[in-house]
Amino acid sequence: MLDLAQLAALAAVHRRGSFDLAAAELHVTPSAISQRIKALEDRTGILLIRRGQPCSATPSGLRLIRHHDEVALLHSTLAADLPSLSPGPATLRIAINADSLATWVIPALAATPGFLFDLVIDDQDVSQDWLRRGEVMAAITAHPGPLQGCDTIPLGSLRYRATASPAYLKEWFPTGVTPKALTRAPALTFSDKDRLQDRWVTRQTGAKTRASFPSHRMASSQAFVEACLTGLGWSLNPEPLVKDHLATGRLVELVADTPLDVALHWQFTRLAAPALAPLTQAIRRAAGAVLVPPG
Predict the structure, then answer these.
(1) Which of 199, 194, 223, 224 is nearest to 210 (CA)?
(2) Within 10 Å of residue 53's Cβ, how many Cβ atoms?
(3) Bigger pLDDT: 71 or 50?
């Protein structure tokens, strides 16, 4: 049987990126962390951590980290029936896109006691990769699957609106939202992985290739809205974040009634499904209150 303390050290080094930070998280010395990792590598006969800045797990190390997380969740389920065995809240690592976090996920987390949430924020188009690598136990993703060893529940679609301030629209699109104007008007992009603006522009222009337009970059859902309000750029914003601004006229759609819906799914490891059941129920309720229902 693998030593749980050694597995915990492996997970902490990978996720915190260094032996010192892992030691601080687990309340032991860096030397103790080093000894645990060495003992685990000796036991398995394979390299589990790539030493560097930051440290990171090898594929075999990731598989053991996933095993550690699954065992920790199973322990939390057992502790619900036998409270005297409880070591405290279980840490649950989930991959979530920033817009879901900003619009509907927090109430679901708040409605699920007994966990410490470690959220990995990444684009919905790639969040499934975190689950595939074994770095998270669940993910909100745009991909329906199937993913080996995982279950998928469709949640509905997060609706986006292409929005800008009236002054911005007047300055950059004086004769309408034309393909030529779109190549000049500054947009907002979350990161290199963000394709929402691309998809909307391609849909409007009918272009066969990827859209080209100037863009500010800022990794914040709320900052997108503020930037649109101040006239810094235009962007696809989640409807729940901008509906009040649209109602008052502080923001307007670039092209009226041209929403972009992004289907979202809740994926989780099948082995951890019983322990995740309360969170899964809360996720479905919260999604049902905000997202466009699945078709």
Answers:
(1) 199
(2) 7
(3) 50
